[in-house]
Structures are given as structure tokens and as C-alpha cells.
Amino acid sequence: MALVTGATSGIGTDIARRLAADGLHVVASGRDPVRGRALAAELGDAATFVRADLTEDRGPEGLVDAAVRLRGRLDVLVNNAAVDHTGALLDTPASEVRATFETNVFAAIACLQAAARVMRDSGRGGAIINITSRLAHIGVPTMSVYSASKGALLALTTAAAVELAPWNIRVNAVAPGMTRTPLFSAWLAEQRDPVAVEHEVASEIPLGRIALPDDVAAVVAFLARTEAAYLTGASIPVDGGYLAK
Ligand code: NAP
To answer: Is pTM beyond 0.85 here?
Structure first.
């Protein structure tokens, strides 16, 4: 069974679709019950929607418990849920920093802890995939707080990969570049000239286009498979070559 957080939108929805196509039962989670139920209906027997707000007290632990109760096991966790943050670093209040870290870091750590305990106790191990960002690696003005949250998730990935290896729990990161999702559309809408910014963004990507959610989902699905059994502690950029420049 695979638990995907943030499966009610964008990249997470396509990750759920890919993992279901690979034969895993997917527990698809998010806050929006309308989109969550629609995804579960689309995937039929291959998926169950479990509503959870990961910033609520014991939200992550409750979600992992609910998923394990449903299927009796947990083989894959995809830590995908996140919020965006844009704002001049020097004008960002601590409350916004905390809110960003609450979802992007604290909830992701709590999900990883709860899931890894189940994987350890099962004796089977498992795969944990953290969705970071190219912004964990590079600086872009006004994105510092978001970058810091994704950098923390990247550091968690390498540290947890080493600490959890004795139980055959693999921990990897996938670092998307700009990807066409509601998060991207919202960011674009905030720009002074969205059409010009979109053109500029695409022209700076060596492969010449903005990623589709399924470009990211395909790599996540590979990391979840047994073919990736010897891969842990890695961060795979899915950014059309942007970080390679
Ligand atoms: P998105 O469309 O905005 O979706 C975000 C998902 O996270 C939604 O399903 C949302 O649930 C869920 N979520 C947010 N806060 C939550 C909370 N407190 N509790 C539970 N679920 C919560 O984002 P996306 O663009 O697909 O991004 C997916 C991942 O890729 C994120 O980690 C993002 O940082 C990363 N990423 C995206 C891009 C990009 O260009 N799109 C680039 C680099 C990295 P509801 O909608 O149900 O509230």
C-alpha cells in the first residue's frame, strides 16, 4: 500500500495515478474532500481517499494510522503535500515562516516517523519519497522561506536514509522544477506579466518546457519500485536540466 499526501491536487494526483497503475493500493490524502473523492472514484478499487489536515495536532500520525488500519500494511510513503510561500525575506513575519514549515517540514517529518515505524515493525522495510524542489538547491529572490523548507526536507532525506537503512527503509527525494499545477498557476498569477514570465521560465529550461505533473510522478513511481532497491539517500532532479546548467 502507498500513502500519498497532497494527492488532491497537481503532482500528488498524478503520483497516485502512477502508483495505482503499478498495482499498489493508494491511500490518497489531502484536505479537499471533493477532489479527493473524485480521484478515488476515478481509480476505483485501487485507491481510498482519507481526508487529513497535516497541520492539525496529530494529523500526520492519525493519517498513517488510518491508512494502516485500512490496508494492514504500508510499503510506500510519498511526502508530497506542501504550501508555497512568496515574499521578500526581510519583510516576512515569523508567523508565515512557521506556517510554511508547519506543512512542508514538521508534517513531513511526522509522516516519515509514523510511516517508518510501521515499515520497521513489519520487517519488510519500505520506500519513502520526499518531494522537495529545485529551490532546495538554488536561490530565487522572494522564495527564501519556501527554499529553506525544501532544504530542510532534502537534509532530512539524506539523514533518514542513513539512519533507517538497517531496516531496509529507503528514503529518496525528488526535486521538481517548475511544473504545471495549481501551485504553479497561483505563483504565475502573482507575477506582473504572467505570459511573459511563463515564456521566460520555459526558455531558461534546457529541455525548453515546463514539466507536467506526470513527468515527476514517473520518477516517484520508479523510486517506489523494487528495481530501485539499492537506491537510497538520493535526490533526483526532475527539472528538464535546469540544475545541470
Ligand atoms: P498543489 O497543486 O498546490 O497541491 C498541494 C497539495 O498539498 C494539495 O493536495 C493540498 O491539499 C496539500 N496540502 C497542502 N497543505 C496541506 C495540509 N495542511 N494538510 C494536508 N494536505 C495539504 O501543489 P503541487 O504543485 O502539485 O506541488 C506538489 C509538491 O511538489 C509540493 O511538495 C511542492 O512544493 C512541490 N513542487 C512543486 C513545483 C511546481 O512547480 N508545481 C515545483 C517544485 C516543487 P488540498 O488541495 O486538499 O488542500
So the answer is: yes
